[in-house]
């Protein structure tokens, strides 16, 4: 069985190919059961979460991701996300590969946001605001740069020193990035705003958003967590990766529905609708679009398949 560590997983998942692979699986015959989501107490610290995420394409591939999220791991200089993906043959059940789950999750999450931006961000988007300085931030900047002609990146974090470090890392990757401290002002300048935090209180205020902005909400993966306020939801054309996941787990969707600010019917489409063309996505250059991602097992399976094919010489272009 093939075993890929985090560096091998990263190298096997170039963003352009990953974005296309995720799109293909969303539009295909992938079977995605409801994932298992378990809170785990950690004495003296924030609760951890265990996720079990199965998916399969009949007769080709099947897989499951086992992922642990420990929010206080930063105090130990450890990643928040720990886990692995087990890829198997969908024809024989043979176990084919064990893929490092943290890198897979980070890259498929960023690629999914970039895929959504193909349909929701303005084609001339040039400035991106990254809210958050964790593992996902650099991935999101790189992935969004694949689908839009981004020329400038602003990085904001609660810890400005960390934001400066992240901006420096982004510059080392060839991105024109700078750390900022005024979130309201930067929100009003950005064409794409991507948030990847563990915030329980809104960070992005709807009144700050200018017409034409695309808001990409990646963090806040529990109903009690939130990265944007009610006004942002009210002003935006809302899209999600999956309705089932977003309405159950995404606080940026769950809370405004619960308070009556928006209705379930205000979710215009989910990812598969955009990919298959049953919904056109952005309809107007002045429209504010909001994409809420909580993660779907189809994205993990797509990444695991691509990583396996890439590592075994089966990927296109190899």
Automatic annotation (TrEMBL):
GO terms for molecular function: oxidoreductase activity. This is Ornithine cyclodeaminase. Keywords: NAD. NCBIfam families: PRK06141.1 (NF004793). It comes from the Bacteria. Belongs to the ornithine cyclodeaminase/mu-crystallin family. It comes from Neorhizobium alkalisoli. GO terms for biological process: carboxylic acid metabolic process. SUPFAM superfamilies: NAD(P)-binding Rossmann-fold domains (SSF51735). One of its GO terms (cellular component) is cytoplasm. The keyword Transport does not apply. The keyword tRNA processing does not apply. Pfam families: OCD_Mu_crystall.
